[in-house]
Structure prediction request, 465 residues.
Amino acid sequence: MWLEKLGIYGMEEIEDIILTGLVIGDPVLLIGSHGTAKTTLCRKLAQALDLKFHAYDASKSLFEDIIGFPNPKSISKGIIDYVPTALSIWDKEFILIDEISRARAESQNKWLEIIRSRKIMGVFIKNLKYIFAAMNPISYYGANPLDEALAGRFIFIIQIPDIKDMDENNIKKIINNSTEDDGRYLKLDKEKQLSKKEELKEFLIKVRKNVKPIKEKLNGSIDNYLTKFIKFGVIREVVIDGRRINMIKRNILAYISVLYVQNRLKEFSLDKLKEHFYKVIKYSMPFAAFEENISETRMKYIHEIAFNSINENEEIFFELKNESDVDKINDEFINKDYSLFKTLVSKLLNKLKDKSNIEEFSDKLKILKKLVKKIFDGEIKPEVNDVERIISAYMMIYDASFLSGKKFSCLHYYGRAIKQGIIETGYDDIKLLKLAYNLSEGQNGLNYGKFKEYIKILKINKFGG
Prediction:
């Protein structure tokens, strides 16, 4: 493992993601508690790549520290140039922007130009190869959420593990590890270095060479997956922009190449790729950098839907827009992904609460009626609580006393009638609901008297007399 060779322990889960960030070369954000080796990680990576490293404290660094001072001689010639200092960025090759979430707004804006385009005041920083940034979790006192535009510039947002969450083996390694900053006059252990300076560089070059052939093999599958991820993500309130989805594709390609070069992925069949696609998605999302809380359960669910539909020629529909969409819903559809069915129903019922657009309301009502009919005809068998909310919504809409503002809605009479019908006939509630539904078709509510007459007929047919 590369990081262990550098004396970095307990980061096995994120090592391949970090390597992928190095392969691509775009900015990476590390989020972790104090003392989780964020700075040490960056310094060690820079050493392994033989790059000039500097860690800036964004909460304290002045703009003059970063840029240096204007050179009066060059200004007199109409050229913008700066007198470098030991801190200035012009000769740096690998930088860490630490405490970025504690930087003042105007300072964050200046760092944004560096992160976005590797420029300061429009001047290109030609030596700069890698930009990492670090912050504490936003739950920390004094740590502010990043501006979404700034967070959106990082290809990976990597949460660094705490020592308390590591296994005992890694904890013991950390206990016995030391760096150049530790025990300056009491050197108990020699700091770890790669045996060959070029070793990590050679690995990254090899990985980059394999990205293009991997793209030729997986391009269509990745595009289908990410298209479905965007579409279904909107329904589950996970919205990502065009820049982010473009980043994720690059991340997937480079990550698969990292695994392939290490001989940890030899086949490109979809069943072998599923967990790897999700891992890239997990660390590519920027939400941890600002206050939006997206649960891992929700992300996994969206991933499952998107991945499982990669090879489906028919586009998955994510909203019941017209009556023909109801024709696509059958038991096979429900059993394949019941959560999607529940989501479709929830969106439909929410749309029916809004009566401001009569035409749209009417269209949604037709869809609801068709859905109810499919339930009563036995074409689909949703879970009981979903049957109840679908039927209840239908009854409420067709309930004349409810619409006229009377105290008791017809829903009350439906419930009372069906309960009595079950007692008298022993029939299940679905059969009696179907009867109630048929008696309300084309009317504003249930004809309760007629329903009671039918109960009598059902009772006679079942028990005689």
